[in-house]
Design brief:
Blueprint (H helix, E strand, L loop, with lengths): L1 H22 L6 H20 L4 E9 L3 H11 L5 E4 L15 H6 L1 H22 L13 H25 L2 E4 L1 E5 L4 E6 L4 E11 L3 E3 L7 H4 L1 E2 H4 L9 E4 L3 H12 L4 E5 L9 H13 L3 E4 L1 E8 L5 E7 L5 E6 L1 E4 L3 E3 L36 E3 L11 H16 L13 E3 L5 E5 L2 H8 L4 E7 L3 H6 L7 E7 L6 E7 L3 H13 L4 H6 L9 H5 L16
Parallel strand pairs: 1-2, 1-6, 2-3, 6-17, 8-15, 9-10, 9-15, 10-11
Antiparallel strand pairs: 4-5, 5-6, 7-16, 12-13, 13-14, 18-19, 19-22, 20-21, 21-22
The structure holds flavin-adenine dinucleotide and NADPH dihydro-nicotinamide-adenine-dinucleotide phosphate (NDP).
Protein name: thioredoxin-disulfide reductase (NADPH)
GO molecular function: flavin adenine dinucleotide binding; glutathione-disulfide reductase (NADPH) activity; thioredoxin-disulfide reductase (NADPH) activity
Family: Belongs to the class-I pyridine nucleotide-disulfide oxidoreductase family.
Length: 542
């Protein structure tokens, strides 16, 4: 019965194809040509693969990371028939992981836990000053114990995500999605079994993967953030290449865990962030043991007979060459979207010419691609911050718009973020450079303070990089445009201020807010020295 039907459909499509082919010279419309291409693709598939089962859904989400999971679960609450595909291609070094995407497995979560492990080491040093007996020969971190504890927690999250999908009636397919055309996705599982999927709407949420520089030996010798959290053995002496979030955070916790760590920076640290703050971050790292290689680029890597790696580099200013031998080289030179590997060239989804990310903002919807029923969320959407809360919120709001009669769009403005370096840097709103560009120096006031977290006093820690900066209008009630905080627990401190800034926080309101004493966060509301005044911004006394 089924094969008769397939025979009938195939012949019908052949007739249609011939008709379209005959009519083609009569029309110059690219849209009609596209439908001709579509019919041809359908024909090819029907002729060759009518044995592959096809399933229909209301919504199919490709990618089970932060954005994809949030969107699929939210859509299912409207009683929709939803599937989410998640498939992890092993890293070039062979590392694999479970459901949940980058954040859970090779991003935010293991990173923050290893950052915490490093902070604890520092806290134990402080403990001596607070009267604790700490072994005279110092303390040591056991990588195997720490990483297996982190990995076990990550595995529990993988499991939790599977259970949640099941309880919310979202079908989970551990399969790789590949678009055959605007309406059809092919899902291939690890055993090569294929399924055809058609849906009313598709959401692409496939995230990105670390890039490698194209220098000899890089792919064979270096690991990336996809591997570092899953290393079975301690990394040892490590070279980290890159100067943004991933590089700084990894170099920070590796130094804190006691590894001899170097950081190779080709230009500026934390491009796009306030540069005064970024340089304070790197000053703190340098003074806490990270070996900084400024203005250097790697030239080659070579695996030696003892398994170590010889890295050679060049200083781009002095043109001097350098080289050293490391046990681990970590590439953190940015991420490439997975959009180029999922058959989008078989669809009419437009990608950004250089980044390869999906171009949104079609039909008045920020996440809609050039194909009205295909959407992009999270790291693969062009021009949007690559952050977990961004992907989650965009996914949830999209589900509400698709099925809940909502019209609420994602607000990508004033997204708060924190770089989890040994001294954390949190910010929301404009950098000083951006504010000067946008409003001009004469219209802005910058309040700032160097402060000493109370816990540093007994511990006799150096607080010279603990700094806060607020950028606001010079006149009127002084609307706040940007807030930057460098110090312990920056993420925790900044979260509440991010709410206030969304509510159009002004310096006037800040000034009338009482601090919570004694905290570092109270220094934010107490700031009163302006940069313009030239007065010493160091906070003194209680
Ligand atoms: P992802 O979470 O990357 O999920 C995409 C999923 O799709 C993956 O599971 C992938 O395997 C799967 N996939 C890919 N192709 C296919 C296919 N063809 N078929 C099926 N499945 C496919 N953000 C923060 O907010 N805070 C942090 O502290 C933070 N730390 C980070 C640390 C590191 C080291 C890194 C690398 C990132 C960090 N991020 C952080 C960023 C955050 O992880 C990402 O912004 C977030 O995970 C993006 O979510 P997503 O849904 O777009 O994609
Ligand atoms: P980014 O794209 O932000 O930065 C790439 C870095 O690599 C830059 O410093 C760049 O230098 C450098 N680089 C690029 N190519 C080379 C090269 N050939 N040789 C040497 N250096 C090179 O990438 P990340 O991977 O750090 O971060 C990706 C995203 O993940 C971030 O934008 C962030 O949104 C997210 N993330 C968030 C975190 C958080 O919230 N705490 C933590 C980690 C990641 P240059 O400036 O000179 O181009």
């Amino acid at each position: 019965m089924q094969s008769n039907l397939a025979y009938f459909v195939t012949n019908l499509l052949v007739v249609l194809g011939v008709l379209v082919h005959m009519l083609r010279p009569l029309t110059k419309s690219s849209h009609k040509f596209a439908s001709f291409k579509g019919v041809q693709r359908l024909l090819t598939r029907c002729k060759s693969d009518n044995s592959i089962p096809t399933k229909k859904y209301d919504l199919v989400v490709v990618g089970g990371g932060s954005g994809g999971l949030a969107c699929s679960k939210e859509a299912a609450t409207y009683g929709k028939h939803v599937a989410v595909l998640d498939y992890v291609e092993p890293s070039p070094q062979g590392t694999k992981w479970g459901l949940g995407g980058t954040c859970v497995n090779v991003g935010c979560i293991p990173k923050k836990l290893m950052h915490q492990a490093a902070l604890l080491g520092e806290a134990v040093q402080d403990a001596r000053k607070y009267g604790w007996t700490v072994p005279e020969n110092g303390i040591h971190n056991n990588w195997e114990t720490m990483s297996s504890a982190v990995q076990n927690y990550v595995r529990s999250l993988n499991w939790g995500h599977r259970v949640q999908l099941q309880s919310k009636n979202v079908e989970y397919l551990n399969a790789k999605g590949y678009f055959l055309d605007n309406h059809t996705l092919e899902a291939t599982d690890a055993k090569g079994r294929k399924k055809r999927i058609v849906a009313d709407n598709f959401v692409v949420a496939v995230g990105g993967r670390p890039k490698y520089t194209e220098i000899p030996g890089a792919l064979e010798c270096a690991i990336s953030s996809d591997d570092i959290f899953w290393l079975k053995n301690k990394p040892g002496k490590t070279m980290v290449i890159g100067a943004s979030y991933v590089a700084l955070e990894c170099a920070g916790f590796l130094t804190g865990l006691g590894f001899d760590t170097s950081l190779m920076i080709r230009s500026i640290p934390l491009r796009g962030f306030d540069q005064q703050m970024a340089h304070l971050v790197t000053d703190h790292m340098a003074s806490h043991g990270t070996n900084m290689l400024w203005k250097c680029v790697p030239e080659s890597m070579e695996k030696l007979s003892d398994g170590k790696i010889k890295v050679t580099w060049k200083n781009t200013e002095t043109v001097e060459a350098g080289s050293d031998i490391y046990e681990t080289v970590l590439m953190a030179v940015g991420r490439a979207p997975e959009t180029t590997k999922i058959g989008l060239d078989n669809t009419e989804v437009q990608l950004h010419a250089s980044s390869g990310k999906i171009l949104g903002e079609h039909g008045g919807d920020l996440e809609r691609s050039s194909v009205p029923h295909i959407y992009g969320i999270g790291d693969i959407l062009e021009g949007r911050p690559e952050l977990t809360p961004v992907a989650i919120k965009a996914g949830k709001l999209l589900a509400h718009r698709l099925y809940g009669n909502s019209t609420v769009q994602m607000d990508y403005d004033k997204v708060p973020t924190t770089v989890f370096t040994p001294l954390e840097y949190g910010c929301v709103g404009l950098s000083e450079e951006e504010a000067l560009d946008k409003y001009g120096e004469d219209n802005l006031e910058v309040y700032h303070a160097f402060y000493k977290p109370l816990q540093y006093s007994v511990a006799e820690r150096d607080a010279s990089q603990c700094y806060i900066k607020m950028i606001c209008d010079k006149e009127g009630d002084q609307k706040v445009h940007g807030l930057h905080f460098l110090g312990p627990h920056a993420g925790e401190v900044l979260q509440g201020f991010a709410v206030a800034i969304r509510c159009n926080l002004t310096r006037e309101i800040m000034d009338s807010t009482l601090g919570i004493h004694p905290t570092s966060a109270e220094e934010v509301v107490k700031m009163h020295i302006t940069k313009r005044s030239g007065l010493d911004p160091t906070v003194t006394g209680c």
